[in-house]
Design goal:
The chain has 76 residues and is α+β, with helices and mostly antiparallel strands. It has one domain: 2-Layer Sandwich (Conserved Hypothetical Protein Mth637, Chain: A). It is 18% helix and 34% strand. The chain has a five-stranded mixed beta sheet with strand order 2-3-1-5-4, with helices on one face. It is globular, with a radius of gyration of 11 Å.
Length: 76
């Protein structure tokens, strides 16, 4: 299981997942979706799953579902 700290920036022009610049820094996710009705969370899960080449069901938001800083787990 992989755990990522992700800083989310909703309402971006394009959806991009950027790895951490240094160990211990958070990943950055720019999402096209607005932070309304969980749309940004759904897009974040799809983006992380695509990046790691796994199913969306293997990705979970462990904490921070309603904030900008999220803890995301990926089952290997």
């Amino acid at each position: 299981m992989t755990t990522l700290r992700v800083k989310v920036k909703p309402n971006a022009r394009a959806s991009v997942l950027e790895p951490a610049a240094a160990p211990g820094d958070p990943w950055t996710a720019q999402l096209k979706a607005p932070p309304v009705d969980g749309k940004a969370n759904i897009e974040l899960i799809a983006l992380v799953a695509r990046h790691f080449g796994c199913a969306k069901a293997a990705v979970r938001i462990k904490s921070g579902a309603s904030g900008r800083m999220k803890l995301v787990t990926v089952d290997d």
